[in-house]
Amino acid sequence: MSVWALDLDGVLWLAGEAIAGSAEAVNRLDAAGVPVCFATNFSYAPVAETEAKLARIGVDGRGRVITSAMAAATLVQRGDTVLVCGGPGIVEAVLARGATVVREGRADVVVVGYDPHFDYHQLSVAVSAIRAGARFVATNEDPTLPTPAGLVPGGGALVAAVAYAAQTEPVVAGKPHQAFAELVLARYGEHGIVVGDQPMTDGKLARRLGYRFGLVLSGVTSASDLPTDPPYDHLGADLAALVDLELG
Length: 248
Prior knowledge:
The chain is of the alpha/beta class. The chain contains 9 helices and 15 strands. Helix 5 crosses helix 6 (155-166). 50% of the residues are buried.
């Protein structure tokens, strides 16, 4: 049966608040035996924290969360020394890969993701390691992150600063890139639908996977932004509307 790969921000919640009907929609899919996973570019939080956040809105996310941190870790080799400029979610994923995490000094790989505490010292350390030959991996390219106070710089903004100073382009792991796609394919196979609010990430991931793209208007994209590139296969006001179309 085809998997539903659901983005989180803009699909399940928005600025930390659950979107009406989203949890019930996931539970309807579960009850119908439809495989569901949660596909997010947010690298900062450990997986258990995201699972707990899903549980608080009434969704069982255990074992079903795929993050850009997990995708980035697949680009790290066992035994590598990895300089992490990012949050505990990246540290968790890199350690699970069998690599060593450092915050400065010599490194085989530099992984950069969202970190609200990122500063000039971290920028300098990351750039020095890359210029000394470390491979440069980015969790994702998202320029902004929605918060209750509005949009703030996302992980992609920090990646861009490191790339500009190091004069080196990273290998990007998160949606819509290959490392993330491979995690989804390995777990769920070649048939599915990606549901998200951002065509540039969710839509392009769907195309890379060979999945359908279900666009919801409950997040970043609004009706005034239509049509989109890439085009959507299904359109709904929110996740509940798409599930209604699928299950009736």
